[in-house]
Amino acid sequence: MLSLGKLLELSLAGREPAEKIQVTSRGVKLHWLADGVLQITPPASEDCGVDLLLSAGIHGNEIIPIELLDRLIRAIARGDLRPRVRLLVMFGNLEAIRRGVRHIGNDLNRLFCGAHVEAGGAEAMRAMELERMTASFLSLEGRTRRHYDLHSAMRPSLLSQFAICPWRNGRPLAEGALERLRAASMDGVLMQRAASTTFSAYTANEHGAEAFTLELAEESAERWPACLQVFERAMQAQIAGQSIQAEATPERFHVFSVAREIIKRSERFRLCLPDDVENFAMLVPGTLLAEDGEGDRWIVEEEEARILFPMAQVAIGQRAGLVVVPGEPA
Ligand SMILES: O=C(O)CCC(=O)N[C@@H](CCC(=O)O)C(=O)O
Ligand SMILES: [Zn+2]
């Protein structure tokens, strides 16, 4: 295997390679751009016209996506997986990965779309660097641009795997985008209704990419569940420039949209849900969701509401959970 295939291992060890460009026997070029960032270019005659960005480790404690991206890179460097797309791979928050935590200072996935300018600190610098390298990668005209930012929701979920579609300011999704999600074993998609400063919002809105945050299945008793295997095969196929169909007799593909964001406003914020509540658990109207200081209460008002990403330990001003409802945004 070409040594640049060890991108993750080298980056975590802080070992910058002396040789920054390597070429496989089939003419695929691997180019180390920075710690945790590798650009992979197929021979021009094999390029199918897609520019694909795969990122993981934007949150350092989400192990499965990091491991999965590492496997894909190694397969390319061994010559087992033959790319026909231009590919940029990124491990986002290296120090957080080393320490096994979501973030060190600020949450990196709140610092894109220029939000790093106001923030300061190591994560802000990294967001700026990732934006710069992404902008350069996605600057070629006439290409199909895709970005999957790989995460894993750190709690049980009624949907094993799902996508989040950033708000796109009214621009429609590319043809086949949802079909590609289904083929990658996503059980559904959550449509954002407002601008955000996540990595996928950045590539969707500033570079017109077909971009999603993907929440992969958690590590379970079954170390690598079937849905993750399907996902890995789907990514291999996209890298190889093959179109793939969702497997036969697909489960229903669920569409949700965000009804409300629960924002933590003070240190007195308290979520009133069980610690082990599952993502997409049903919420009964009238239920108290959260309290924050003097008489500030979040009560379920929506019919068929569900909770997503409940997390009280976030910085003040940040999202501590989402109330979502079935269907496209109104
Ligand atoms: O498990 C959790 O609570 C959060 C999982 C996670 O990191 N989700 C992303 C979603 C990003 C988006 O809205 O596109 C995040 O919170 O950054
Ligand atoms: Zn995450």
UniProtKB/TrEMBL annotation:
It is an enzyme of class 3 (hydrolase). Signal peptide: none annotated. It catalyses: N-succinyl-L-glutamate + H2O = L-glutamate + succinate. The active site is at 215. It comes from the Bacteria. Keywords: Arginine metabolism, Hydrolase, Metal-binding, Zinc. InterPro entries: AspA/AstE_fam, AstE_AspA_cat, Aste_AspA_hybrid_dom, SuccinylGlu_desuccinylase. Zn(2+) binds at residues 59, 62, 151. Residues 49-219 form the Succinylglutamate desuccinylase/Aspartoacylase catalytic domain. SUPFAM superfamilies: Zn-dependent exopeptidases. Pathway: Amino-acid degradation; L-arginine degradation via AST pathway; L-glutamate and succinate from L-arginine: step 5/5. NCBIfam families: PRK05324.1 (NF003706). HAMAP family: Arg_catab_AstE (MF_00767). Belongs to the AspA/AstE family. Succinylglutamate desuccinylase subfamily. This is Succinylglutamate desuccinylase. It comes from Stutzerimonas azotifigens. The lineage of its organism: Bacteria, Pseudomonadati, Pseudomonadota, Gammaproteobacteria, Pseudomonadales.
